[in-house]
Design goal:
There is one protein chain. The chain is α/β, with parallel strands linked by helices. It has 4 domains: 214 residues, Glycogen Phosphorylase B (Rossmann fold); 191 residues, Rossmann fold (3-Layer(aba) Sandwich); 168 residues, HAD superfamily/HAD-like (Rossmann fold, 3-Layer(aba) Sandwich); 71 residues, Alpha-Beta Complex (Hypothetical Protein Ta0175, Chain: A, domain 2). 40% of the residues lie in helices and 16% in strands. Helix 3 packs across helix 6, helix 9 crosses helix 15 and helix 13 packs across helix 16. The longest helix has 30 residues.
Length: 720
């Protein structure tokens, strides 16, 4: 019987999977600015999916995000799939943690679950992406695992970086403890470091992002970072045409705040986030009398019905804006619209341009600044922070001024210069709209993006061809059976028996995934397999089931690590067990993060039950594995070879009754029982004799690998 059929595409047609987990993503009327997690990243991902799907070199484009079932948000976010209009792309929503909507920092404990759901989704479609493009560190963590497990290219865009955020928060006087409690920043930074070293390609928006932001990381693989400035939909963003009139609802939403709405408009569109420096903008405006008399200030800071219903960070910023309006008596001059739709944003830019205004981005730090090129395309000059993306935008477009965003007088001076200069205003407006077409169109962005992705996939396929040559077997996602074997005195020990088994394995790799389950470390197992000319397995279950690795690079299954870490108090366990007579710690090489190993002196050892009783009396949980009457391994309560096999069954969709395990000692016991087909080879240790008589356990008469073959024949494994 062959394995599952996995769809194979032409080398020129790619299945692209964009992964953006946090925030609220929907195809129609995305709620941009609704909260800190639903902003520019969401807009970029949707636009990229839409544009890439119209490129014939992409056969399929999907956006994988989180399914949210919460009365506090639209029911749109609980739809499993949603077509993106005017495209061939769709949004796919998978469960990740609780049903309710939660902020991105709270998603980290559930990301391993999301990996499993992605695998199940791909398996259900019998199709694996050629390339995964992840967005932000949380999706990057998921992408690293999927890329390694499935052997596919991984491209990543950070959007913002943990080290940069931590540096900013420190500068604002936020304590390390508070930073860690609120933002889980250390975990994020660790993942970002791993991403830089593992991905096929990192996409940045500007050179400054590479030099100053990624430059703070320790990765040496800077050659894998490419600059692709975000693209813009020029069918949405363009200068106001003759006779332009803004829609009545939007006009009323803005103008009911203003005494003289026809004055030039200073427009800011940003989340209510402290880093956006919106209070600083109001200070600048309020303290420049000529500017205050000459223009209105309009700040669009997301949507709200009641400030008290916003999250604490947003509410704090908006209350400060309202308080500043009152302090400086800006009623009739300052507008703080409460509602807007995504299609209103281009209209706002055109309205400001029609009134010969200016768009301002006063953020303290700015990675790129997508709204700056939206304003430029709309024929609206800009004033922006002299940091990050804005520097390159003004360098290319010559459409405004850069300022020190911490200097409110400098902001005000620049704003007044723009709105009070008739000739220069027109020059900046024309230069911006024409420059965007040359440098920031989606067509230009997508062309470079497509070329880089095809190169990344081509390079990755070279690696995969070498991997396939080593494995000579199916990808796990395509297998419908699995065989898991202990190494020492089971798979190896008799060269003739091993040769017989390898001949069988070679004839069945199209459907059978091959795993080893050993007390050795993964590196040691890999070495001994090479010494015996045994093909590298798809999966290494190592260190008595406390670790799972995949492929030649021994990529660790982080989901398994997270699962078995529950109630694992390694230091406390070691301190207690080290004091038990008859136990001597094995060499440092045999100790692992989730395994403490001892040599046993039978003359003095009180017994496994007695050790277990000592642990219980000290409120400690562990799984004790006694083998060969001379070794004791202490593992997390959830860890064992058997549990690892059950985990693989769940993760890869291979039924337990289509899994065969073979071993010879006590540390194999758990994987030999249950629904799996268990084979005990003839040269087994007496400690597992008690398994005789169990319906799914077969005691072979032959030893070593010939015993495995005897068990395969007994269970009719070939014909399952």
């Amino acid at each position: 019987m062959t394995g599952r059929k996995v769809i194979v595409r032409s080398a020129h047609e790619l299945y692209l999977c964009l992964v953006s987990i946090h925030g609220l993503i929907r195809a129609n009327e995305p709620e941009l600015g609704r909260d800190p997690d639903t902003g520019g990243q969401v807009a970029y991902v949707l636009d990229l999916a839409r544009t890439a799907s119209l490129d014939p070199t992409f056969s399929r484009v999907e956006v994988l995000t989180r399914k949210v079932i919460d009365k506090g948000v639209s029911p749109d976010y609980c739809l499993s799939q949603e077509k993106i209009p005017n495209s061939n792309a769709e949004i796919v929503r998978l469960r990740c943690g609780p049903n309710r909507y939660i902020r991105k920092e709270l998603l980290w404990p559930y990301l391993d679950e999301y990996v499993d759901r992605c695998l199940a989704y791909f398996r259900s479609n019998d199709s694996i992406p050629d390339v995964i493009h992840t967005h932000y560190a949380d999706a990057g963590y998921v992408g690293m695992q999927l890329s390694s497990m499935l052997g596919i290219a991984h491209v990543h865009t950070g959007h913002s970086l943990g080290r940069v955020k931590r540096s900013y928060l420190r500068s604002q006087g936020v304590s390390e403890r508070q930073i860690e409690r609120q933002f889980r920043i250390q975990r994020r930074i660790e993942v970002e470091e791993e991403l830089l070293d593992s991905v096929s390609l990192t996409i940045a928006s500007t050179k400054q992002e590479i030099e100053e932001q990624y430059g703070s990381y320790s990765s040496r693989r800077r050659n894998r970072i490419a600059v692709i400035p975000p693209g813009l939909d020029l069918d949405r963003f363009y200068p106001p045409k003759r006779g332009f009139r803004v829609n009545e609802t939007l006009r009323e939403e803005v103008e009911h705040f203003l005494r003289h709405p026809s004055k030039p408009m200073i427009l800011a569109i940003a989340r209510a986030d402290p880093r956006k420096n919106l209070p600083g903008l109001i200070e600048a405006y309020a303290n420049h009398l000529d500017l205050k008399d000459a223009a209105n200030l309009v700040i669009v800071a997301g949507n709200r019905d009641d400030v008290n219903e916003l999250d604490d960070s947003q509410a704090k910023v908006l209350r400060e804006l309202i308080e500043l309006m009152d302090r400086y008596d800006l009623y009739g001059r300052l507008a703080l619209p409460k509602h807007h739709l995504s299609e209103d944003v281009p209209e706002l830019f055109r309205l400001a341009a029609k009134r010969r205004g200016v768009f301002v981005n006063p953020a303290i730090t700015e990675g790129f600044g997508l709204t700056l090129i939206e304003a430029a395309a709309s024929g609206l000059p800009i004033v922006a922070t002299d940091d990050g993306g804005p520097r390159e935008i003004v360098q290319y477009l010559h459409n405004g001024l850069l300022v020190d965003a911490s200097d409110t007088k400098e902001i005000a001076k620049a704003l007044y210069q723009v709105i009070s200069s008739t000739t220069q205003w027109s020059t900046w407006a024309r230069s911006g709209s024409s420059g965007v077409k040359r440098h920031y169109s989606w067509e230009a962005h997508e062309k470079k993006y497509s070329n880089l992705l095809h190169k990344a996939v081509h390079s990755n396929r070279k690696v995969m061809r070498r991997r396939i040559a080593l494995l000579s077997g199916p990808n796990l996602i395509g297998a419908n059976k699995l065989i898991a074997l202990d190494i020492d005195d089971t798979l190896i020990g008799d060269e003739n028996a091993l040769a017989n088994f390898l001949q069988w394995l070679d004839g069945h790799r199209s459907a059978v995934a091959f795993a080893v389950a050993t007390g050795r470390t993964a590196n040691s197992a890999k070495k001994v397999l090479k010494e015996h000319s045994i093909p590298l397995p798809d999966v290494f279950i190592s260190s008595v089931g406390s670790e799972i690795h995949y492929g030649p690079r021994l990529q660790k299954d982080l989901g398994w690590r997270t699962h078995i870490s529950h109630q694992w108090r390694r230091d406390d366990l070691k301190a207690l067990i080290d004091g038990i007579v008859g136990l001597t710690p094995q060499s440092r090489y045999n100790q692992r993060e989730h395994k403490i190993s001892y040599n046993v002196d039978l003359r003095r050892f009180p017994g496994v039950r007695e050790v277990a009783a000592v642990l219980r009396s000290n409120n400690l949980r562990a799984h004790l594995v006694y083998s060969h009457q001379k070794f004791l391994d202490v593992l997390p309560a959830r860890a064992s070879k058997g549990n690892a096999i059950r985990y693989l069954s769940y993760k890869w969709g291979i039924p337990l009754n289509r899994m065969l395990a073979a071993g010879n000692s006590g540390n194999d016991e758990e994987m030999l029982g249950g629904v799996t087909l268990g084979v005990v080879v003839g040269n087994h240790s007496v400690e597992i004799d008690h398994l005789r008589g169990r319906p799914k356990v077969y005691f072979a008469k032959q030893s070593f690998a010939d015993g495995i073959l005897e068990g395969i024949e007994h269970f009719g494994f070939d014909d399952l």
